[in-house]
Design a protein that fits this description.
By secondary structure, the chain is of the alpha+beta class. The chain has 17 helices and 42 strands. The longest helix has 16 residues.
Length: 837
């Protein structure tokens, strides 16, 4: 690795963090995937500490203890009572369990000391499992609306005081960085090609060259500016690796000044050539068009399994009328002193089931969907089913009533050979077969952090205490009185006990591994074709990384073509390096997109949108970027069109009407302009890098605030009219999604092609990009988006003269050409996909 005038050894880069606690410092291993506690080591006083010269928040103590090696004491004085306070950030994969805060002291301040290498880190303080707060005394914030506080250590802190200017003949060498061991700087994308990058200070150099030497391979190649952030520019060159290339370096030029990085020899460039290649995402995931479904709210195909009101807590309420207005309350919802907001609206069951989903697979196929992600389907008493009663069986409300009771007494959670497939399970397996018969894929939601409080293992622990066979499964704080940790503070969601390496209980881990195998290869014959095609993992950052490394290897041992994606809301570099996930739910995309497509007072320019997208494209390995689940809403956010109708809000913020900060949220049917912007964003989603994913009902115009309003039952044509006249199927919008999805299926360039920005016009508020194959110069696709409220004529940036509209907003002109230029005219809030030959 090279970084300016400093060369850092691998042990510095991978040292991880040290936690100062009651027993001194505890090492928490680095390099992303090892979070093993190595045990107590000498305390802070044993280090030779030197004051740092770079600027940093004054309330944080920062000391240098080695070459680009620092001790940082985080301090926080919360405004309200806290529960299990901690600090979490990019330095510990956002794991809230790894850096607990000690205190408070006499002044009400909590603190913890960590050992960090130089760099930039995002972090937040954890007031409770579901309450994460920015550092109130640190004004630095990460862009994108996350509210994450920023800590800069070492060179990056100095560089923020530098004012660069291209052409001034000065190059800030301290900003220059290349690390062939990091995929940001060396990204192998195939067996015979890679992308190599180097970093420079933003706006500091005029050109960068990649210079390589070797028999038949010597040459100097101009590098292109691939991305930029607030501080740095990133230049890249696409090369074909060759064992004949012996060395390489970079040359940076600005005015009369030049700067050369040290020479990198062949072994440094290809440290992984002779090592086993990390697992790559399955090829089919590049072609996926995802549709997310909450089964209870999708389609009721069998009324015989619908719950009926009994008055018992676990069966509170009966099947809610599908056509009813969401805000209409029924008599059975007011028992036990409940109110609408607490908690009747959360407890509703609408009767959606596997039979209804099977009946609508043809609908999904015709829509253009190729892959289905199901929210949890295992036995649970509520609608979302993130509180599993068991992972072994499918829910009877989705399958066949009475199935679980018929088999549970004869089964042993610790012995998979006793597990049977009951009638509900067989119906779920039928669903999997029917999905595969249509050449579609299906993945389940895996919730391996917690279960429901009616899970048999937890009930046994509650009854038998330390003598339970499952005594080590759960995070029990006290046996007498019995106190345990529930996820996000909810007693109904007891968490599994954790160790630094994963789950504390070997038998709990073995149980989860066995469940994983059960649903991936149901008949156990070694052929996974009868099982699901992968998993989406719930709250993975709450489980130590060591578990995920083992579990993902287990999944791939069952099916090498399985797809693994995670619920990661923040940047997810450490999750996508080949040892764990293939992808994440790409919540970073809407954080970049909504400010351009939908904001009003805080709207960003087309050029800023382009900059944010570019930074996202190089954030992860290229092969993983192509399989990210590109979403704009989900079961955990307000619906896509409602977010458009409520501009200037932070993504997934102030969007719950039941919360104080969401009281002003407009939850009415959005105006027509919001739906026009939804169509334009859908065009972008269908033509951009990554796999599109929509939340059920988006295609018919469903709207709503965040959970649970975003989880209304699906609008179907054969169920109209609904009790609320605003609940109506938008057939034109559905046809738009169908056309876009089928266009993506027909065009390999949209699924697998390269990307290049083509048009950035801030004055017209127009943005465009090419999707192309560098090896085929005969054809490319140009996507042009007019985000303004005015008609815009846009010049097509090519000398080609043969064009064809493949998809366009009504009112778009046919591309025209004269002797000097070609152009297309787009209607307000309109876009087009143009074939160029």
């Amino acid at each position: 690795m090279f970084s300016g005038l400093f060369t850092h050894s691998a042990d510095v880069l991978k040292k991880g963090i040290l936690l100062a606690g009651a027993s001194g410092l505890i090492f928490i291993g680095g390099a992303f995937h090892s979070s093993a506690l190595a045990g107590p080591v000498p305390g802070v006083e044993t280090f030779t500490r030197r004051p740092v010269e770079f600027p940093h928040p004054e309330h944080l103590d920062v000391w240098e203890i080695g070459d680009d090696d620092y001790l940082v004491t985080f301090r926080w004085k919360p405004d309200a009572p806290v529960k299990d306070p901690a600090v979490a950030g990019t330095f510990n994969s956002w794991n809230r369990a790894e850096l607990p805060l000690s205190g408070p002291d006499a002044d009400g301040v909590y603190s913890v000391t960590a050992r960090l290498a130089g760099g930039e880190y995002a972090y937040k303080f954890v007031a409770a499992p579901d309450i994460w707060e920015s550092d109130p005394l640190n004004p630095l914030r990460e862009e994108g609306g996350s509210g994450n506080s920023l800590l800069r250590l070492g060179v990056v802190a100095f560089l923020h005081d530098v004012t660069p200017k291209r052409g001034d003949g000065v190059i800030e060498s301290r900003a220059v960085k290349h690390d062939p061991d990091a995929y940001l700087y060396y990204d192998r994308i195939g067996t015979d090609d890679a992308i190599v990058r180097v970093r420079a200070l933003a706006n500091d150099v005029e050109s960068v060259s990649f210079v390589m030497k070797g028999p038949g391979q010597s040459g100097r190649y101009r590098m292109e500016l691939a991305a930029a952030d607030e501080l740095f520019d990133y230049f890249e060159y696409h090369l074909r690796p060759s064992t004949a290339m012996m060395s390489y370096h970079f040359e940076l030029r600005d005015g009369d000044a030049s700067f050369e990085t040290p020479e990198h020899k062949h072994p440094d460039l290809y440290p992984r050539v002779n090592a086993p290649r990390a697992p790559q995402p399955p090829e089919w995931a590049r072609d996926a068009i995802w549709y997310q479904i909450m089964v209870d709210r999708f389609r009721d195909g069998d009324t015989a399994n619908n719950p009926e009101f009994t008055g018992e807590p676990r069966t509170k309420g009966r099947t809610h009328p599908w056509r009813s207005d969401w805000y209409t309350e029924y008599p059975w919802e007011r028992t036990d002193g409940w109110t609408f907001w607490k908690w009747s609206m959360y407890d509703r069951l609408y009767g959606g089931d596997f039979r209804g989903l099977i009946d609508k697979l043809t609908y999904l196929k015709e829509l253009g969907v190729t892959a289905i992600y199901l929210n949890p389907v295992f036995v649970s008493h509520n609608s979302h089913k993130y509180n599993a009663r068991t992972y072994v069986h499918a829910d009877d409300g989705y399958g066949v009533a009475g199935s679980y009771a018929a088999v549970k007494d004869g089964e042993d959670l610790l012995d998979p050979t006793t597990w049977k497939f009951n009638a509900s399970d067989r119906m779920l397996l039928e669903l999997i077969r029917e999905v595969h018969a249509r050449d579609m894929r299906i993945i389940f939601d895996g919730v391996w952090n917690h279960v429901g409080d009616d899970h048999p293992a937890f009930l046994d622990v509650r009854e038998n205490g330390k003598e339970s066979r499952y005594a080590d499964w759960f995070n029990v704080v006290s046996w007498d009185p019995f106190v345990y940790r529930g996820w996000a503070g909810f007693d109904g969601l007891p968490e599994f006990a954790k160790s630094p390496d994963g789950l504390a209980s070997d038998s709990a881990k073995a149980h989860i591994f066995a469940v994983t195998h059960r649903w991936m290869d149901p008949n156990g014959d070694g052929d996974p074709s009868d099982g699901i095609d992968g998993w989406r993992l719930d709250v993975p950052m709450d489980v130590p990384m060591g578990f995920w490394v083992e579990w993902c290897a287990h999944v791939r041992s069952i099916n090498p073509e399985a797809y693994i994606t995670g619920e990661i809301w923040d940047p997810a570099e450490e999750w996508l390096d080949g040892q764990t996930f293939d992808a994440v739910m790409n919540y970073q995309l809407p954080k970049a997109a909504f400010p351009w497509f939908a904001n009003d007072r805080e709207k960003i320019t087309a050029s800023e949108f382009d900059r944010r997208l570019a930074r996202l494209r190089i954030r992860y390995p290229r092969n993983h970027t192509y399989v990210l689940q590109n979403l704009f809403d989900s079961h955990d956010t307000d619906r896509w069109v409602s977010r458009i109708a409520n501009p200037d809000l932070p993504y997934d913020g102030a969007n719950r009407r039941q919360d104080e900060d969401g009281a002003a949220y407009n939850d009415a049917r959005p105006p027509e302009e919001a739906y026009r912007r939804l169509r334009l964003m859908a065009l972008f989603q269908a033509t951009y890098i990554g796999a599109p994913m929509i939340w059920y009902g988006t295609e018919v115009g469903m709207y709503g605030a965040d959970d649970p309003m975003c989880r209304m039952p699906m609008w179907w044509d054969d169920m109209e009219p609904f009790d609320n006249p605003d609940y109506r199927v938008d057939k034109d919008l559905r046809e738009e999604f169908r056309a876009l999805f089928h266009l993506r299926q027909r065009e390999p360039l949209l699924r697998r092609g390269d990307y290049r920005t083509a048009i950035v016009d801030d004055d017209k508020d127009v943005f465009g990009y090419w999707r192309h194959d560098p090896a085929d110069k005969s054809r490319a696709l140009l996507v042009v988006l007019n985000n303004s409220t005015k008609e815009q004529t846009v010049e097509i940036p090519t000398r080609a003269r043969k064009f064809r509209l493949l998809h366009a907003t009504p009112g778009t002109s046919q591309p025209s050409t004269d002797f000097t230029r070609s152009s297309v005219t787009l209607p307000p809030i309109g876009g087009a996909v143009i074939e160029v030959e």
